[in-house]
Write a structure and sequence with these properties.
The structure holds three protein chains of three kinds. Chain A has twelve helices and 14 strands. In chain A, strand 7, helix 7 and strand 8 form a beta-alpha-beta unit. Chain A is of the alpha/beta class. Chain A starts with a strand and ends in a 6-residue tail after the last helix. Chain B is mostly helical. Chain B has one domain. Chain B has eleven helices and no strands. The longest helix of chain B is centred in the C-terminal third of the chain and has 33 residues. By secondary structure, chain C is mostly helical. Chain C is built from eleven helices and no strands. Chain C has one domain. The interface between B and C is large, with 50 and 55 residues.
Chain lengths: 338, 284, 287
């Protein structure tokens, strides 16, 4: 099977030079300013063709470094990496025809050109015929809601519009593998939603299209990704589907119910597949509030049966599942924003 | 704010390489720049007098001193202009600095301060090269040192003022750093008696030169550091005016350009803000 | 859609990169003043240097010689436009592309780096040619130089081969910017004047002495300028005293230089890109 990308013991170490200063002496604490930084540490990762793969990690985890290696902008220190079956160190030209990358907060392009012109220019670096490029650009601009800005100079675009332009630049070359490095960074809800929906459709509706997405937004990874890897300090800590990752931490779901006042809570306690539960009667409203720890989700229907058997109506129900953030925190020991 | 801006300017000018290499660069660059004029003078003297002895040529001394001190002009003008262009186009920090409560005019002056320092090193190196390698005769009495320093301060003020005029203009122009950096000093190079006396220019050119403070600045410097016997051999077009008169003209023209710089800077800044182009990017 | 072949890809890339330069020139017209009026001032200054050294009552021989030198300055000034385009609008442009974040997108694309640089050069050619032409026209009408165009084909051949060699050399310099940032920029600034000096932009290169002139011939502008001066001023106030080799020989050497520099450019771009990727400097900003 040809993987979209594959890394084997991929390691990337950066040497850091101490800060130069003509007037001050070099810092006596050389270790503070110098010393190597291991950005990727024996990373073994395979991404299948047609996958929308997520990479989660705190700042400085190595996400962008990994993308740069796969985009042929950075050489590994040791180990190997392959994109579409080609070696990133030796077969760069073959890889470059098949990939593209979009970063969040990108300021590429030229302010004096219009949106359309900028994207067209980048398309020419991939040898796309002008006519084809312009058709694709117009179609993508319609999709991203940027068509009315096609003749507007880039320097006048807002942040969201600029990022949409960057996304169009990424898609216009119709790459086989697209690397998205925090593509919705700093965007409003609508813009983010547009981008997410387009990316998901792009992968699902086209054969052999792969996306590697790095993000800080857990919801984004959960919603979009087939599989997610959690990376910290250059190492992959976990790799699986979002659902399986959540299961890994063995955190139970919590169900909160507001029902008509129950005559007895004993039947609920006897249901198999629930852990602890608590109940509180609200006499003023004639309700009982139940909080039930559910170990086996199939128990939920038994709970509801037990309630309705007493002639009680369920007024509201809320289920809280373990989140990817919970997974992340349990793996990394801190939140993404810390 | 001046101190912080000067520090920033110095960091940006100096921290691109090891200190040793930076020192070598600071010496080689001005000397390399002077060499073209040395060769041109050599050829010209060979034709004109058949005696290409640069050390004995009053005209060459005139040219060399002018060129050495012109390093300030080129460096500071470029520095002032580049502050806006680089902060705006490449580092994209201009909006943050501009909207802070500092005086932006002072910020640019501060950033230009490092250019003055580097130009001082370059000028000193060039003059030393002229004295030791090319046997140019420079002399200044102890009494003249305070006057020389005063002339330098006034001259640098006028150069910074012109630089601020350029900085203001750069708010409104696209990224033309090198074109402008070469071109505007070229104007002063031609009209201010830098490398040839004003008298060589046609009448209208001499009138332009007489309106520019740099002309008087360079003339005053030459009269202070070159032997009077050499000054007398060159028909500069300003012989009728004594040194006090030259300095007075320098003061008046500097004051005028200083006021002009404030007005022009404010006007261009206002126009740029009105058009919303303070932080535009035009790199192409 | 089938993938484009090597030539088609790079021709498109070349035109793609030249586009912003051409369009930028038509949308922001302040360059007209900076590239036409201001350079003439520097040229004029150099012309006046020669005139300033004339004794009070020069004889006709001296005047002829100074006029010859003025002609050399004008031709040199014309070529200066192209040299500055090579140095600042092409080579060091990669530094600024790195700063704004374009470089990584360029490096990731399958186009040749020489197509990218060629696009910059071609795109800047309009402004550069405007500047060069203005200098030449001013030289003729204001400074009164008299050009003799007896062999236009040879003049054009020398001119274009010199440009190709010069741009090849510029591409070699550009490769430095892949690995370095401000070091390379300051190196370019350092090289500007010595190249003017060694190539004899404003004086005949033979004034440097035969040995130095031969060494300086490795810079394409040296032989290019000498050949153009010989072809445009076949009879100068110096006779042929300051002319180097014959224009035909100089053209042959320039052809070799052009080929050598283009090959070296390709090799150095590849090598330094690999080095930059190994050291992690290809996409490092604010170096």
């Amino acid at each position: 099977m040809t993987y979209a990308t594959e890394t084997r013991d991929l390691t990337r170490i950066f040497k850091r030079k101490p800060k130069r200063n003509l007037l001050k002496r070099k810092s006596a604490k050389k270790k503070e300013n110098g010393g190597p930084v291991t950005a990727l540490d024996h990373v073994n990762l395979t991404i299948k063709e047609g996958e929308l793969f997520g990479l989660l990690g705190p700042n400085g985890a190595g996400k962008t470094t990994l993308i740069k290696v796969l985009c042929t902008l950075l050489l590994p220190t040791s180990g190997s990496a392959y994109v579409a079956g080609f070696d990133v160190s030796k077969e760069v030209n073959q890889i470059r025809r098949k990939i593209n990358m979009v970063s969040g907060g990108e300021t590429s392009g030229y302010g004096l050109l219009t949106t359309r012109e900028n994207i067209w220019m980048f398309s020419q670096f991939y040898g796309i015929p002008s006519k084809v490029a312009k058709e694709r650009i117009d179609e993508l601009m319609h999709t991203f809601g940027l068509y009315d800005k096609k003749n507007v100079k880039v320097r006048t675009l807002s942040t969201g519009e600029r990022q949409k332009m960057n996304m169009i630049r990424g898609f216009v070359t119709d790459p086989e593998i697209l690397f998205l490095d925090e593509p919705t960074l700093g965007l409003d809800v609508n813009a983010s939603r547009t981008i997410r929906e387009y990316v998901m459709n792009w992968v699902r509706k086209r054969e052999h299209k792969t996306v590697l997405l790095t993000t800080h937004y857990m919801m984004e990874a959960e919603m979009m990704c087939d599989r997610v890897a959690i990376i910290d300090r250059g190492r992959i800590l976990a790799l699986d589907t979002p659902a399986n990752l959540k299961r890994m931490i063995r955190k139970e779901s919590t169900v909160q119910l507001e029902v008509d006042t129950l005559k007895s809570t004993a039947p609920i306690g006897g249901i198999k597949g629930i852990g602890n539960f608590s109940s509180k009667d609200d006499i003023a409203h004639g309700t009982t509030n139940l909080t039930i720890i559910v170990e086996d989700e199939s128990a939920i229907s038994d709970i509801m049966s037990a309630i309705t058997a007493q002639g009680s109506r369920i007024r509201s129900m809320r289920k809280t599942d373990p989140t990817l953030e919970d997974v992340f925190i349990s793996m990394v020991g801190k939140g993404l924003e810390e | 704010m001046f101190k912080q801006a000067a520090w920033l300017g110095w960091e940006m000018d100096s921290n691109w390489t090891e200190p040793g290499l930076f020192l070598i660069y600071s010496i080689i660059k001005p000397v390399a720049g002077a060499f073209i004029l040395v060769l041109m003078s050599f050829v010209a003297l060979f034709i004109g007098t058949g005696n290409p002895d640069l050390g004995k040529s009053a005209m060459f001394a005139y040219l060399f001193v002018g060129n050495a001190f012109f390093i300030y002009v080129a460096s500071v003008l470029f520095g002032c202009f580049q502050v806006i262009q680089s902060d705006r186009e490449w580092y994209q920090t201009i909006r943050y600095v501009y909207m802070s409560p500092i005086n932006f005019y002072t910020y640019i002056v501060g950033r230009a301060a490092s250019k003055v320092l580097l130009a001082t090193i370059a000028t000193a190196v060039t003059l030393a090269f002229g004295v030791f390698a090319l046997h140019i005769d420079l002399s200044m009495s102890l009494w003249d040192i305070p006057l020389f320093l005063a002339v330098m301060v006034i001259g640098l003020l006028c150069v910074v003022a012109i630089g601020l005029c350029l900085a203001g203009l750069s708010f409104l122009t696209a990224k033309h750093t090198h074109g402008l950096a070469e071109g505007i000093p070229g104007m002063f190079y031609l009209f201010c008696g830098v490398i040839f006396p004003l008298s060589v220019l046609p009448g209208w050119g001499q009138s332009v030169g007489r309106a520019l403070p740099i002309t008087y600045w360079l003339e005053a410097i030459r009269r202070l550091i070159l032997p009077s016997s050499q000054i007398a051999q060159v028909t500069t077009g300003l012989e009728q005016t004594d040194l006090a008169g030259i300095i007075a003209l320098l003061l008046i023209s500097t004051a005028f350009f200083f006021l002009l710089s404030i007005l022009l800077f404010r006007m261009t800044e206002y126009l740029a803000r009105k058009a919303g182009i303070i932080d535009m990017t035009t790199n192409y | 859609m089938t993938e484009p072949g090597f030539i088609r890809l790079n021709v498109r890339a070349l035109f793609g990169r030249s586009y912003p330069r051409v369009i930028g020139g038509t949308r922001e017209l302040s360059w007209i003043f900076f590239e036409t009026v201001l350079p003439i001032l520097s040229i004029a200054a150099y012309v006046f240097i020669y005139k300033a050294f004339l004794p009070p009552n020069p004889d006709q021989t001296m005047l002829d010689k100074v006029n010859a030198l003025v002609g050399y300055v004008v031709i040199g000034g014309t070529m200066t436009a192209f040299w500055l385009n090579v140095l600042w609008s092409m080579a060091s442009q990669l530094y600024w592309e790195k700063e704004v974040g374009n470089l990584q997108l360029y490096m990731m694309a399958p186009m040749s780096r020489m197509a990218l640089l060629g696009g910059m050069a071609v795109g800047g050619m309009f402004m550069t040619s405007t500047r060069a032409l203005t200098t030449l026209v001013v030289g003729v009408f204001i400074f009164g130089i008299v050009l003799t165009i007896s062999n236009p084909l040879l003049i054009l051949a020398v001119f274009f081969v010199t440009l190709i060699a010069l741009y090849g050399m510029g591409m070699m310099f550009a490769s430095l910017y892949l690995l370095y940032g401000r070091e390379a920029w300051n190196l370019s600034a350092l090289m500007e004047e010595p190249i003017f000096l060694l190539s004899g932009f404003y004086f005949p290169v033979k004034a440097l002495g035969q040995t130095v002139a031969i060494g300086a011939s490795v810079i394409p502008a040296t032989l290019g300028l000498d050949a153009l001066r010989q072809l445009m001023f076949p009879v100068s106030g110096f006779g042929t005293q300051f002319y180097f080799f014959s224009p035909e020989l100089e053209l042959a050497v320039l052809c070799v230089l052009a080929a050598v520099f283009l090959v070296l450019a390709k090799l150095s771009l590849g090598y330094l890109e690999t080095l930059a990727k190994r050291e992690g400097k290809l996409t490092t900003r604010h170096q």
